[in-house]
Hints:
Blueprint: H1 19-29, E1 50-58, E2 62-64, E3 79-81, E4 89-99, E5 105-112, E6 123-126, E7 131-134, E8 144-153, E9 157-169, E10 228-236, E11 240-242, E12 257-259, E13 267-277, E14 283-290, E15 301-304, E16 309-312, E17 322-331, E18 335-347, E19 417-420, E20 435-437, E21 450-455, E22 461-468, E23 479-482, E24 487-490, E25 500-508, E26 515-518
Antiparallel strand pairs: 1-9, 2-9, 3-8, 4-7, 4-9, 5-6, 5-8, 10-18, 11-18, 12-17, 13-16, 13-18, 14-15, 14-17, 19-26, 20-25, 21-24, 21-26, 22-23, 22-25
Amino acid sequence: MIIYKNLEIKLSVLISKHKRELMFLLLLLFTPGLFLSPYIEETKAGANPTIEQQINILNSLNSVQTSSYAPTDNSLGLIHWDADKYAGATIYFEAVMANTAWNGKTYATLNSSSGVVVSGSEIYKSGTGYGRVRSGALTLTDDTDYTVRTKFSTAGGYIKAARLIIVQTDSEKIIDTSTLIEVGNTEKGTNSTATELENRKIYYYDSSTFDPAPTSYFEAVVKSSDPTIEQQINILNSLNSVQTSTYAPTDNSLGLIHWDADKYTGSTVYFEAILANTAWNGNTYAALYTSSGTVVSGSEINKSGSGYSRVRSGALTLTDDTDYSVRTKYSTAGGYIRAARLIIIQTSSTKITDSSTMIELGNTEKHSNNTAAELDNEKIYYYDDSSFSPAPTSYFEAGLKTSAPTIEQQINVLDQKFSVVSTSYSPTDNSLGLIHWDADKYTGATVYFEAVLANVVWNGSTYAALYESSGAVVSGSEVSMTGNGYSLVRSNALTLTDDTEYTVRSRFGTAMEQSVLHD
C-alpha cells in the first residue's frame, strides 16, 4: 500500500455535481505506474533575537574593610539606569570578589545612590580566591542612579569588579539598546587644566559597522574634593621617661588641653604619640584621659620594642568643653614618650565654617621668679593679618601649675667608707648604723633610699638595701652599681613602717670582687 503524506482532500467541498471530477481524481491516484510527487509544508519558529550588554560599575581592585555595608558616598562607582534604552531586558547584578580567610565571606549589593538596596541583589563569595558571583533577575527603577556597596564577615575581603548584566530578547527584533564603552578608569587629579588620563583607554570608532548610525554620548562620574583641613593640638612636646607599669602621672603634669567642639565642625579626632621602649620585647603605652582621670574609650596606643615610632589611635569621641591630658605606662623595662597630640581632620561637602589653629609659643618650663621673665626656650611666631580673611579671633592660653611647698631632708644611716666583703647581705648586727622612722614628723613625704657605691673591678657589681632592725628587707630598696668608680644610686619610692628602726646592709656580685659602700 502506498501512503501519500500531506495530501489533504477536503471532502466537505465535494458536492454531487463534482462526482465526475472526483472519480477522475481517484482514477489518477490508483492507476498503476502513475505517481504524484509529495511535498511538505510547515511553519518553523526561529531563535528569538537576543543580545547581552554589560554596564560596569567598578573595574578596579578595592579592599573591603568593614562588617557593615560601605561606602555610603557612592565612591565605588555610579551608573544611570534608563529602562527605555533596554527593551525586553532581564537584569542581573554580578561581582568578582574574594575573602582573606578560608572561612570568611565577602558580600556586595546593588544600591540606589540614595542608599536603598535593590531587593534580591545581595551576593557573596566564600573563602579565599577570586570568584564571579551573579544575582537572580532584578527589578530596577527607571531613571535612577545605582552604585555598589560591600562588607565582610570574618577577616577582610576584596572586590575587583561589579557590573550589571542586561540580557535583551524579543520574538521579532530588538528595537532599542545601549552599549557602554569605557574610555577611562578611576583616577584622582589636582590639575586645573585639561590633562590626559594616566591610564587612558583608546576606542576606535568605525561608522560602517553601524546601520543605522548610533547616537553617541559621553558620560563620566566625577566628584570634586571635599574641603578638608587638618589641625593638631599638642598636649606634650618634650621627652619624658615612662617609669611605672600603671598609667601615670595622675596630676595632669604631662600637659593639659581644652576641647571645644564648636571650634571644629565636621571633625574626626585621633590621639597620636611618639613612643619607645628600653627593651626589644617591651611595650610602652599612652592613653588620652580627662583631667578628672577618666580614660577616653579607644585611645590606648602602644609601641613595641626600642626605637621611636609615631602611633595613632582610631577615631575618638570627645566630650565638649572638657580638659584632656595624657598618661603613660610600660610593660617589661621602661619607656619614653616625646610627643602627644590630638589630630583633628575637618571635612565638609560644601565648606568648613569653623576651625581653630593652635600655635605654640613655649615649652614645659619651671620658674621661681616673681616677676615676668623671658622663657628659657621661647618660640617666636610671626603674625601677618593679610594671610587671614576674615580676620581670626585670637586667644592666649597656658597650662599652669603653682609649685607646692616642698622640702627635702636626708637621714644618714652610714656616713663613712665601708668595705663589702660578702656575696650575701651583711652585717646582720645593724652595726652600719641605725635610725628611727617617725612618720608623724614627715607628713606628705615620699621616701627614697640612696647610697654611694663603688667596685674594684670594671665588671663587678655592688649592692645595698635598707633593712628593718629585725632583719626584714624593705621592698624595692635594693640599689646597685656596676664597675669601678663611685656612683650615687637611688631607689624608687619606698613604703616605711611608722615607729620602726632601719639599718643598711650590702653585698657584692661574685667571690672575685671587692666592693665599697660609702655614705
